[in-house]
Each structure stands twice: as C-alpha cells, then as structure tokens.
Known about the structure:
Number of strands: 9
Structural class: alpha+beta
Radius of gyration: 30 Å
Shape: elongated
Mean pLDDT: 83
Strand content: 25-35%
Strand order of the largest sheet: 1-3-8-5-6
Amino acid sequence: MEVHYLVFLLSIFWHGCQGIMWSLAPNTQKCLKEELHANVLVAGEYEVGEASGQRVDYIVRDSKGHILSQKDSIAKGKFTFVTETYDTFEVCFISKVPPERRGVSQEVFLNIKVGFEAKNYEGIGEAAKLKPMELELKRLEDLSEAIVQDFTLMRKREEEMRDTNESTNNRVLFFSIFSMVCLLGLATWQVLYLRRYFKAKKLIE
C-alpha cells in the first residue's frame, strides 16, 4: 500500500490550524505527522467524500505504534486525544476497495486544532457559568500559558543543543590529542627501531 506523508505545523500553540483537503486514491494511505510534547490536547474533525463500495478508515498512533484513536468506515466525525509524552504522532487515512471493484479517488477534509485552540470554551463557559468577558479572559490566560510553555520548551531544546555541541567539541579535542600522542609515539618507536637496525648493520655508530 502506497504511503504519502503530509507535514503540517502543530507545534505553535497560539496559531489555529486551518483545515486541509486532499484527494485519497483507491487502496492508498496518507498520513499527517508532527512532533508534540507531553500533555497537549489535540482535536480533529474530518469528512470523507462518498464512494459506492469503498471505505476509508482512520487511525491515530504514536511512534511506538500505540493507537490513540481509530475508526473504520468513516464518513464524518471528530476525534480527540491528549499526548502523554513528547513524541511523533500521526493521523492516517486508509482507502480500502474490494478487488472486484474499480476504485475512485475520494476527497478528504481534515481540520486539526492543538493546545488551547482545541478546547471547547463554550462548554467550559456553560459548565462554570462564566460571563463572556470571563470566558475571554480564560481563553487569554490559556493562550499566555501556552506561549510560556512553548518558549520554555524552545529554551530547553537550545540548552540541550548547546550541551550536545560542547560535548561533541570536547570529544573531538580529546580524539585529536589522542591521535597526536599515538602518532608521536609511533614516530618515536620508528626512529628508535631504525637506529637499532642501522647499528646492527653497522651503518651508523
């Protein structure tokens, strides 16, 4: 089964992700994948064009193959999941056509929201009986927290990259020193060996 990967940006929490649409060929699979850190809410809404005698399944999984959401013979619906660890997650749509049928391409629409954008603030407001201004302040508070978390993650990655660079530089330095010591030792041994050899042959005193 042919696999196509479509990359979409989900890591910037304060930007909403626009819906995308593509044509899914018969008996093929298309996946959308992105790296997300832990405790991130992801909400998706999909719609698949109808085709007689054909079906489309979807599956959401992480890099270890753990299934977070799955459904067969989809037409229109939603899914949500919360990431447990920093990992690469993918959403795959799989077209299946019986061998006796001639398949046709189906249009697939997908809209994914991540982080605070995925929250249902209308439901939160109704449950907590918040006024419109209070609900907007709640949304802005979540937005601020998402921005702070994202900058914290960026700083952490920068520190990890700096540590990796420093460690690599130190290893290269030690390897260079070790190589020079080995070469000097080999050159010294070669000079002493040749000197003994020439003395044994009485070519030098």
